[in-house]
TrEMBL record:
1-deoxy-D-xylulose 5-phosphate reductoisomerase C-terminal domain sequence ranges: 151-239
Organism: Thauera linaloolentis (strain DSM 12138 / JCM 21573 / CCUG 41526 / CIP 105981 / IAM 15112 / NBRC 102519 / 47Lol)
Essential cofactor(s): Mg(2+); Mn(2+); Co(2+)
Function: Catalyzes the NADPH-dependent rearrangement and reduction of 1-deoxy-D-xylulose-5-phosphate (DXP) to 2-C-methyl-D-erythritol 4-phosphate (MEP).
One Gene Ontology biological process: isopentenyl diphosphate biosynthetic process, methylerythritol 4-phosphate pathway involved in terpenoid biosynthetic process
Name of the protein: 1-deoxy-D-xylulose 5-phosphate reductoisomerase
NCBIfam families, sorted: Dxr, PRK05447.1-1, PRK12464.1
Family matches, as Pfam families: DXP_redisom_C (PF08436), DXP_reductoisom (PF02670), DXPR_C (PF13288)
MF terms (GO), sorted A to Z: 1-deoxy-D-xylulose-5-phosphate reductoisomerase activity; isomerase activity; manganese ion binding; NADPH binding
């Protein structure tokens, strides 16, 4: 007999890279976890496979045609899973009374609503969707505090910092004695490419990350280092850390996932093979530990750990993110929205790689003075930034 009550999980973004790794961990521990609901945007064939395997109570497809196809296929297979459709249903499966924990693994600002719904409902929230915190850090953290939700970071760096902080952190997000938070960064596929080649890199090259297999948007963000910029803002909100104590360290092996330095000079690091199942399993079982299917770290094989300062000329997006964090107000939401638009345009070959920062910068300049004290204000800042970014993208693509 199991000694644990079974935890029911909703996986938002189940068909993505993080969603699939989450279900891999679930499958290893049928005595601990059962799936309450799964969601995807429009990949009904992949979601069908997952639903047949995990038999959740609900499956949500955002796209209506994909939902109809999934419903028909499940009916034919004799499945009892109920298919819901649309983004309101995402909030329902995130906040439902029968749910114990929610994996927030939708990519981009689209994930904010359901992640916030889980936080407001006091769930154990496993947060992969960093964009949600960048957009609405204060609102999100306030919702967590008010509802008594438990917020556990899935992003490998933040999960590492969480593990390097005192155990009491989860209930006291302002630990004392911390001097610096050191976020490691692989530097992405273009860390050492000649600068003059960057203008012509393709989406395929940008998505070929040296150490991690990830969705396309975060892969491009890693190549520009905007991913690290978003993570600096994420760390600010998660750990109550001012920009001044957050430092980015380029560490190309991706073995040290991040570090915390204390005022006595101690530096605590978390190491492991680059496999997202480690932070996922850590957060799912927290405060216990479970097998994640990750192989042991072979330090003799790793042999060297290298560290470099980030090159802000090569990676202007990182500097823009620090500037947005310092500016506050609508700047982080603007940075995120303009980046999402620019990355999409780059993936569709409408603009070049170096144009991504060129789209974001003028948007940031124009958002000063815009307050973001409510969800509506955040969404308005997001919409305004997307409008500005699309205009910049049109200019840049016309000039190509
Ligand atoms: P992905 O592109 O592989 O998967 C995204 C998932 O979100 C899919 O299931 C997709 O159907 C769903 N989705 C996309 N747009 C949607 C929309 N508009 N509405 C509803 N659902 C939508 O992405 P991923 O790599 O799994 O990343 C997911 C999140 O986790 C991102 O925020 C990313 O920054 C973060 N993250 C990922 C990794 C990683 O290793 N992949 C590491 C750290 C953080
Ligand atoms: Mg990360």
């Amino acid at each position: 007999m199991s000694q644990h009550a079974i935890q029911r999980i909703t996986v938002l973004g189940a068909t993505g890279s993080i969603g699939q790794s989450t279900l891999d961990v679930v499958a290893r521990h049928p005595d601990r976890f059962s799936v309450f609901a799964l969601s995807a945007q429009r990949q009904d064939d992949k979601l069908l496979e997952q639903v047949l395997r995990f038999a959740p109570r609900f499956a949500v497809m955002v796209d209506a045609d994909a939902a109809a196809r999934l419903r028909a296929a499940l009916h034919a297979a004799g499945s009892r899973t109920e298919v819901l459709c649309g983004s309101a249903a995402l909030e329902e499966i995130a906040a439902a009374g029968d749910v114990d924990m929610v994996m927030a693994a939708i990519v981009g600002a689209a994930g904010l609503g359901p992640a916030l719904a889980a936080a407001r409902a006091g769930k154990k929230v496993l947060l992969a969707n960093k964009e949600a915190l960048v957009l609405s850090g204060r609102l999100f953290m306030d919702a967590v505090a008010e509802s008594g939700a438990v917020l556990l970071p899935i992003d490998s760096e933040h999960n590492a910092v969480f593990q390097a902080l005192p155990a009491a952190y989860a209930r006291n997000p302002a630990p004392s004695g911390v001097r610096r938070i050191l976020l490691t960064a692989s530097g992405g596929p273009f860390r050492a490419s000649p600068l003059e080649t960057l203008a012509s890199v393709t989406p395929e090259q940008a998505c070929a990350h040296p150490n991690w297999v990830m969705g396309r948007k975060i892969s491009v963000d890693s190549a520009t280092m905007m991913n690290k910029g978003l993570e600096v803002i994420e760390a600010h909100w998660l750990f109550g850390a001012p920009a001044e104590i957050i430092e980015v360290v380029v560490h190309r092996q991706s073995v040290i996932h991040s570090m915390v330095e204390y005022i006595d000079g101690s530096v605590i690091a978390q190491l492991g093979n680059p496999d997202m199942r480690t932070p996922i399993a850590h957060a799912m079982a927290w405060p216990e530990r479970i097998d994640a299917g990750v192989r042991s770290l072979d330090l003799f094989d790793v042999a060297h750990l290298d560290f470099e300062r980030p090159d802000l000329d090569r990676f202007p997006c990182l500097a823009l993110a620090f500037a947005a964090l310092r500016a506050g107000g609508a700047a982080p939401a603007t940075l995120n929205a303009a980046n999402e638009e620019a990355v999409e345009a780059f993936l569709e070959r409408r603009i070049g790689f170096l144009d991504i920062a060129r789209v974001i910068e003028p948007c940031l300049e124009r958002c000063a003075g815009f307050e973001v004290d409510s969800l509506d204000a955040v969404l308005a800042a997001d919409a305004q930034a997307r409008g500005l970014a699309r205009a910049e993208i049109r200019k840049l693509s016309a000039a190509r």
